[in-house]
Write a structure and sequence with these properties.
Blueprint: E1 4-12, H1 17-27, E2 31-38, E3 43-50, E4 54-61, H2 68-71, E5 77-85, H3 89-98, E6 104-108, E7 114-118, E8 128-132, E9 151-156, E10 159-166, E11 169-175, H4 177-194
Parallel strand pairs: 1-4, 5-8
Antiparallel strand pairs: 1-5, 2-3, 3-4, 6-7, 7-8, 9-10, 10-11
Length: 195
């Protein structure tokens, strides 16, 4: 039902937003991806990539009637929700219904995004967003391969750097000479068996 944790969403007050962006982007090195100002729900969100496989979302209210107002009433910011990726939101709904787990906020926006939420009272104190989407659509070009490319290999001193495509980015592994040789041998054996 769940492919992976896609991102952790942090909500901050409007006046704390620039400090939060500075902290994650300028100090921790997060790379900005997609962002959007949702005028219907009165909030702004922006996805940031951290390292190979991690992402955060920074949200802020953009009006007094934002759904974030109550969450931020007594604090400047905090973890708002965790987003879990699913390959099939309709199958996820069926599983939740079969297990009598209530959900709310179901939206089907076509190929771009489908989502639902599980209230913290049914998820051990954590607001869970389950979503079906294409992860590469939401990250900066610099943290992903171009379409059709799945890996790269580069020599780095006495090591080999292997970088593989991953949903919403890439993952990099540095291999010793012996590890590189073993990988090549095993790939050769497996690929030979495929023919």
């Amino acid at each position: 039902m769940i492919s992976r944790i896609d991102h952790v969403s942090i909500a901050v007050k409007e006046e704390e937003h620039e400090k939060a962006v500075h902290f994650f982007r300028d100090i921790l090195g997060a790379i900005p991806g997609a962002g959007f100002n949702d005028r219907e729900m009165n909030f702004y969100w922006h996805i940031y990539s951290l390292g190979d496989l991690s992402r955060i979302e920074i949200m802020k209210p953009t009006g007094e009637d934002s759904f974030l107002a109550n969450f931020l009433k007594d604090k400047d910011g905090g973890v708002h929700h965790i987003t879990l990726e699913t390959p099939d939101i309709y199958e996820a709904k069926k599983i939740l219904e079969r297990h009598q787990i209530p959900y709310f906020g179901f939206h089907d926006m076509g190929e771009i995004w489908k989502e639902l939420f599980i209230h913290p009272r049914y998820a051990f104190g954590v607001l869970i967003q389950i979503a079906e989407f294409r992860p590469d659509d939401w990250v900066d070009e610099s943290v992903k391969f171009p379409p059709g490319k799945k890996f790269s290999i580069e020599k780095r001193g006495d090591r080999c750097r292997l970088t593989l495509a991953h949903p919403g980015g890439k993952v990099t592994v540095d291999l010793t000479k012996d590890e590189t040789k073993r990988l090549a041998e095993e790939l050769g054996l497996i690929c030979w068996e495929l023919h």
